[in-house]
Q: What sequence folds into this?
């Protein structure tokens, strides 16, 4: 039986393993001689805002059920955060009354509990009342059926609308004056569609690169593709970076 593990703990373990293998360099603290912290450009954080489209995370057990005995996730495209990737595999997500999304991308590496992350329009299409939750906080959430080429899995819970959040390393956190678990505000300026997003959760660890994740509905609302500027600041703070 798979045990649920908090996403922040998994991310920390993955990044530690990457650093120990020599595949990535940990972020030095601000002021390290001759070095900039990971992801910084010209002496300051380089903010990236990414749209996190619908996707799912799977346990090792569910990967084998869905794709066949002995199957593992096959990396197809690296994500911005080191050690994380979009897999070649996709699954069908089936909701009540047989409504379905036919090809939902699986992200790796595997986790301790399977989880499906949707935008509001996706959940409406499936007929699932998915709550807004931070990743890994799936207790009491709706379930669904996942269908792969080798089998299917009934999830009793795990379908969420992922709450917006920002990944950063400790040097980024020091720059913005925040700590892991704090809330920030993201302002996106775009022609006739400027939006300020509150309640952006800080997910800080040693080796993350500065990146805000919003879902497809939020990205469309602010016309992110046409954005002229993005700003991130601590909630309740008059300063801007």
A:
């Amino acid at each position: 039986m798979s045990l649920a593990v908090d996403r922040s703990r998994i991310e920390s373990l993955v990044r530690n393993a990457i650093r120990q293998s020599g595949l990535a360099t940990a972020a030095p603290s601000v002021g390290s001689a001759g070095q900039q912290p990971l992801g910084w450009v010209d002496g300051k954080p380089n903010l990236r805002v990414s749209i996190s489209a619908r996707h799912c995370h799977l346990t090792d057990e569910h990967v084998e059920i869905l794709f066949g005995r002995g199957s593992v996730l096959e990396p197809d495209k690296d994500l911005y955060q080191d050690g994380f990737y979009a897999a070649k595999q996709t699954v069908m997500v089936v909701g009540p009354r047989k409504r379905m999304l036919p090809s939902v991308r699986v992200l790796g590496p595997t986790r301790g509990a399977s989880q499906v992350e949707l935008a509001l329009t996706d959940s409406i299409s499936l007929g699932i009342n998915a709550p807004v939750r931070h990743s890994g906080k799936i207790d009491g959430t709706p379930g669904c059926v996942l269908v792969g080429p080798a089998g299917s899995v009934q999830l009793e819970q795990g379908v969420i609308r992922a709450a917006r959040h920002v990944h950063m390393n400790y040097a980024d956190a020091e720059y913005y004056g925040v700590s892991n678990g704090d809330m920030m505000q993201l302002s996106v300026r775009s022609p006739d569609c400027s939006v300020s997003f509150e309640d952006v959760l800080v997910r800080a660890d040693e080796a993350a690169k500065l990146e805000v994740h919003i879902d497809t509905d939020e990205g469309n609302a602010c016309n992110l593709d046409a954005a002229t500027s993005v700003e991130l600041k601590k909630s309740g703070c008059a300063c801007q970076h």
